[in-house]
Design goal:
Length: 244
């Protein structure tokens, strides 16, 4: 009876101990991420593997974040991809997929990013935003706008970061009709007073040459940053140049 009780107690304690150990390794990885030292990450990975801790989705995701961060900073993409492939599909969650997706997008590997995005069994607002930001930064503005339209069609609410990037794409393509619809969406979401978003709206109308709407947006802003003033100065300078 006593042996059975001890065995039962050990069985209960083991998962708790493994969870604590997984958390410890995850914290070490988070500390190592800023150092971008692949050998340190691999050492932690090896220790975690020997300890049988790679059954933890939390630890696997932290390992993947480490390798993905190292890849973006000049490390090997293979390390991150190999680890992703080693994680059983049942233990992959949307964070797992987003980590690899972000790695490809930040590195400008948009073909790989698109393939990963299309393969995802589930996408959240972060997934869509990563694609939109990557496309916008790569100068693929129409694709960024289309991806935003698809995101809204899926019923997902964009973040401030999503909106600043799609507004930038609308400005670059001078897609006035879509840009104005995005602005209406900003108002509907109650983000008109968000300075980064409002500045993106200002810049967009500046590119459209719509001084009247830009001025109205500027006057409704509760706070003006340096970027806000610069956008208005650039708009009026551009208009004076055209009139001259």
């Amino acid at each position: 009876m006593q042996n059975a009780a001890l065995a039962a107690g050990a069985a209960v304690a083991r998962p708790a101990a493994m969870a604590a150990a997984s958390d410890h390794y995850a914290r070490l990885l988070q500390l190592c991420q800023t150092a971008v030292n692949p050998s340190a990450g691999r050492a932690i990975h090896a220790h975690a593997f020997k300890a049988g801790l790679l059954v933890s989705a939390y630890l696997c995701n932290n390992l993947l974040s480490y390798y993905a961060g190292a890849s973006v900073s000049g490390g090997s993409f293979r390390d991150a991809r190999n680890l992703f492939n080693e994680i059983p599909p049942v233990r992959r969650n949307v964070f797992t997929w987003n980590t690899l997706l972000s790695m490809y997008a930040k590195s400008g590997r948009l073909v790989d990013a698109r393939a990963m995005f299309d393969e995802m069994p589930e996408r959240d607002a972060v997934s869509w935003t990563v694609m939109i930001v990557g496309l916008n930064r790569a100068g693929r503005f129409w694709e960024a706008v289309k991806t935003f339209v698809d995101m809204v069609g899926e019923g997902l609410a964009p973040t401030q970061f999503t909106l600043t990037n799609v507004l930038s794409s609308c400005a670059a393509t001078e897609a006035s009709g879509i840009g104005r619809k995005v602005h209406s969406f900003v108002v509907k979401l109650g983000l008109s007073s968000c300075v980064p978003v409002a500045n993106s709206v200002l810049n967009m109308y500046g590119k459209f040459g719509d001084a009247e709407t830009a001025t109205a947006v500027f006057e409704r802003m509760p706070v003006h940053s340096v970027s806000s003033w610069n956008a208005m100065v650039s708009l009026y300078a551009r208009q004076e140049s055209v009139e001259a």
